[in-house]
Amino acid sequence: MTATEVDAAAPGSGRGRSSRAPRGGRGAAGKVMRRRQARLGWLFASPALLVVAVVMIFPIVFSVIMSLSNVDVTASGFHLSGTTGANYSTVFNAPRWRHALYFTLVYTVCTVIVEMVLGTLVALVLERLKGGRGWMMALLLLPWAMITVISAELWGYIYNGVYGVLNAALHPLVGHDVNVLGTSLEATVAMAVADIWKTTPFVAIIVLAGLVMLPSDVIEAARIDGANAWTIFWRVRLPLLRPVLAIAVMFRILQAFGLFDLPFVLTNGGPGTSTESLAVLGWRVMFNDLKFGPGAAVATSTTALVLIGCLIFLRVFRSQVDEGEAGI
Amino acid sequence: MSGPSGPSRRRQGWRRWVNGTNLAALLVALFVALPLYWLVITSFKSTPEVGTAHLFPHSPTGANYSNAFSQYHFATYIENSVVVAVITTVLVLGLGTFAGYALGRLPVRGKTGVMIVLLMISLFPTVALAAPLYLLMRDIGWLNSYQGLILAYTALTLPFAIWILRNYFLSIPKEMEEVAWVDGASPVRTVVSVILPQALPGLFTAGVFTFVAAWTEFLIALTLNNSDRYRTIPVGIALFGGQYVTPYGTIFAASTVAILPIAILVLIFRRAVVSGLTAGAVKG
């Protein structure tokens, strides 16, 4: 809907088309007008860009510098001295960091795959749904808009090994109390379920929008050629959906890689440090141990991994993403 | 559609509703709704009943709600969240409208690059910002304040808001704006009285997204505002209770109150939210 409008308007946006110049103004007058508008553009954009630069770009740069320095934090302030790779070597050699990296990677890959598959299935169901689609959409938006801390508390209560509802359901079957947050594998799966509950609706809504926008004539043609629904899905609709799916995957990977709220509240990184993500580890090193140098190294390397992941992804899926980003 | 009028019709109607699609939809709805049901129902259970798996409270009570406000400072957390989220949303819409207009409509050189940089930094893991922002705010004395968190949230949410607004501005026909220019309206006036009214849906979308982001954010709020006076709702709820006992009844009463405004907001602006989600995804 909106996206198609945007698509329609996009081609001309490449570089402020010359048709922008007002009717009377040709030649020199038009040029002056354009220059004035360009100046105006920077004037309009600069307050917002300034805020973003000061509060986001500067701290990121500062974080990189901090990760390469010896940082002394005292009650009165902080002090950077020297240039050193020690923070990174400390971090990269620590088994705890390696485990956090491994956990974050495995968790990201697994949850994103499950969420994409489930989300696509839900979108297909929603697309076929005759009545009540509006209500379903409204319901699906609730987990998305939920405060993650609250969903973490909620799932923590559901999983509670003594009075959780999951235990109440499983206890009669296995004959003893079930505390899924007690062992590392089960805790990881339990956390993934909480994540899937909150995020699959987001994927479903995006995929549904993609499904609705598919050109119906192509699908109609396939149907006339005698393709059944199964073939149409795998051979026609899925390939056409790829740009949307690719971008949903990228969004999800980036979000999952910054995973913080859920492990921080639901498992507290435990049992032990088995569900400690890179973000939780970085935050704890900085704010529990007050080791800002190594903490910044964790945060910076995580950001670098995200960037590298993005670039690889963009390269692999370039053709698909290009199509989706034609409006840039 | 047509109501069930005769016995045969009714059976037909019944048949029409029980099929694979609807059953699957029902399953999805249950998977989404049951945890929410559990949250709300537990908030009405008495403390001993919270320790049971009763499917509905046998003796419903509002004690958890009064506890959240009397024993814990939940009213303060709500106040903090409202102040921060509302001011952030207003600031982001104000700054984002002009930036989105400039980057969408005006012949600004390098705007493609600016948009890509905005997109990229909006995807950075927030934890990378935590330490430098903490040290920065500590230096200027803005830890445990409204302005520190508002500034951080404004910057965090601006990139995505600019993207949404820019996409809307691109979709508005250029003629009216050109007429305004030719008629000699000032640039600010052109934006405010010609462009803005047409971009209203985009403003709703960007506004809802910004508000939701500010209302739900946890990491930066935990880092910058940890004193009881300036905690926002997520931080307050995460730090509810002591080390050994988790007062789930109170937590869920507070949670229900915290979710309600955002649930209403999202349901009212459902279309805006969906179009924002899809614009974000479809347009990258």
Short description:
The complex is a heterodimer of chains A (328) and B (284). Chain A has 328 residues and is mainly alpha-helical.
What does this structure look like?
The complex is a heterodimer of chains A (328) and B (284). Chain A has helices spanning 2-9, 27-67, 86-93, 95-128, 133-145, 148-159, 165-174, 184-213, 216-224, 229-257, 261-267, 278-287, 292-316, 318-324, and strands spanning 70-73, 78-81. With 328 residues, chain A is mainly α. Chain A has 2 domains: 16-81, no CATH class; 91-324, Orthogonal Bundle (MetI-like fold). In chain A, strands 1-2 form a two-stranded antiparallel ribbon. Chain A is flat. Chain A starts with a helix and ends with a helix. By secondary structure, chain B is an all-alpha fold. Chain B folds into 2 domains: 7-65, no CATH class; 73-282, MetI-like fold (Orthogonal Bundle). Helix content of chain B is 75%, strand content 0%. Chain B is built from 15 helices and no strands. In chain B, helix 2 packs across helix 14 (248-268) and helix 5 packs parallel to helix 8 (146-171). The two termini of chain B are 38 Å apart. Chains A and B meet through helix 1, helix 2, helix 4, helix 5 and helix 6 of A and helix 2, helix 5, helix 6, helix 7 and helix 8 of B.
Average per-residue pLDDT of chain B, rounded, comes to 85
What is the global morphology of chain B? globular
Spatial separation of the terminal alpha carbons of chain A: 18 Å
How much helicity do the residues of chain B have? over 70%
Write the layout of secondary structure elements.
The complex is a heterodimer of chains A (328) and B (284).
Chain A: H1 2-9, H2 27-67, E1 70-73, E2 78-81, H3 86-93, H4 95-128, H5 133-145, H6 148-159, H7 165-174, H8 184-213, H9 216-224, H10 229-257, H11 261-267, H12 278-287, H13 292-316, H14 318-324
Antiparallel strand pairs in A: 1-2
Chain B: H1 7-17, H2 20-43, H3 47-50, H4 63-70, H5 74-105, H6 111-122, H7 127-139, H8 146-171, H9 175-182, H10 187-198, H11 200-216, H12 219-224, H13 233-238, H14 248-268, H15 270-282
